[in-house]
Amino acid sequence: MIQPKILVATPTFDGMKYCINEFLDRIRSLTYPLYDILIVDNSRDDSFFIELKKEKGITVVKDNCTEERNVMRLISSRNKILEYAIENNYDYILMMDSDVIPPKNVIEELLSCKKDIVSGLYYNYFICDGGPKLMSVCWRSITPDEFEEMNRLSPFPPIIKSHLDVRRALFKEEAESNELFQVFLPSSGCMLVSRPVFEKVKYGLLQLESNMMSSDDIYFIQKAREIGFEPYCYTKVKCDHLVFGKYVKDSSGSLKHPFRL
Q: Are 133 and 126 in contact (CB under 8 A)?
């Protein structure tokens, strides 16, 4: 049996120096026999790129994106990963974030699901009920009945028109079940994507009502869904998330995610 050829890839920038060694150590130790590693650096200068080029066993590409907004630089780098995978005939991309540390058998486990888009699972802190709360970074849709009940108890703003506009994080029981779920938005920092998807779908931003923008992963998943691909999350594949080191202080001294600056 011919094994699929996998590209394990991540966009990164110099703000991820705090976790890059742990990330690369884990990615180099994956147990799948046929994969390559690609790092796309979109830092605003070349110093981090020069350091990354010293690493053995990986391909490092410099993304000289001229966009000022960090999210647009991320989108540029993710699309460079897709282009590289197409040009070099990979069957799948394991699209990673460089602060997400997957289990060593992540590729085998995600391949076993036999899905075109399937992620592992990791957690992050979200502001909820007035304070930070650890929640799964994976979202499911709600049912029409759930929408009606929620809207009755606490009416949604006008921008929320139906259950299709609302999503929820996985419940604790779901996250701990080790089961495969069809989801609204998977844990996109550890996501296996098949060639039929990445040949047709690129990363971008959706323009939402009230002049808000979506994230790059929401755009990718929506465009994939529009051509018939549904995303899944395999909750057996639990990843560590080294999130805190990337936060920086804004002009007021408050900690902010770099995409919020």
A: yes
